[in-house]
Amino acid sequence: MAKIALGTSREAIQPDCIQALVVEFIVTFLFVFAGVGSAMAADKAEASTIVGLLFVGITHAFAAAVMIAAGFNISGGHLNPAATPIHTLAKEINPLQGILMEVVLTFSLIFTVYTTMVDPKKGPLQGQGILLVGLVVGANIFAGGLFSGASMNPARSFGPALVSGDWTDHWVYWVGPLIGGALAGLICENFFIVRSHVPLVTDEEF
User: What is the DSSP track for 20-68?
Assistant: First the structure.
């Protein structure tokens, strides 16, 4: 199992750490700008529910892929947005159903990150992980956007709740994603990822 490295306080003032902080701020801002902008545009155009969901989902998929790629070599392109529209459960969804939805959505996202970007055995998926992660973000919004809001990240729900003061069912967006992400990490780290794996040399590399 991989260990968690906390680092030291001295690392916070290192040039590479400062660069990572700056690039995370930039790519997160641009991702949130595109996501919120797409939702506002769909509302202004008075788009139907399905058209609006499609528009927002595709925008998030493209924006996530591009911004992860933009920040990947400097900070890893984590995109931890904290200022997207507030997440609330649909009227017909109770908290338990919301948690289950967020568990599944977050699991699929983190599982995709592990298997297409982290796993050294990704083979032909090398270089495609960023696009695939963006696509699963869009797919998850299509699947869960109308039910739980498809948060997949506590920070995405905390910022808007803090600004608006609306904490209705907010705990759902912590419990669900934390369980889903933990399950995906636990399963991938212990059953699928072999850290000692060395990629085979291909003919093109001779």
Answer: HHHHHHHHHHHHHHHHHHHHHHHHHTT--HHHHHHHHHHHHHHHHHHHH
3-state secondary structure at position 160: helix
**Which amino acid, one-letter code, is at 155?**
A
Q: Output the average pLDDT for the chain.
A: 79
Q: Is the dihedral of CA 149, 108, 154, 80 positive or negative?
A: negative
**Predicted pLDDT of residue 105:** 92
pTM comes to 0.73
Helices (H), 45-166: 49-75, 95-113, 129-144, 154-164
Query: Taking the CB of residue 138, how many other CB atoms lie within 10 A of it?
Result: 22
Mean pLDDT of 137-158: 82
Tokens of 171: 């705990």
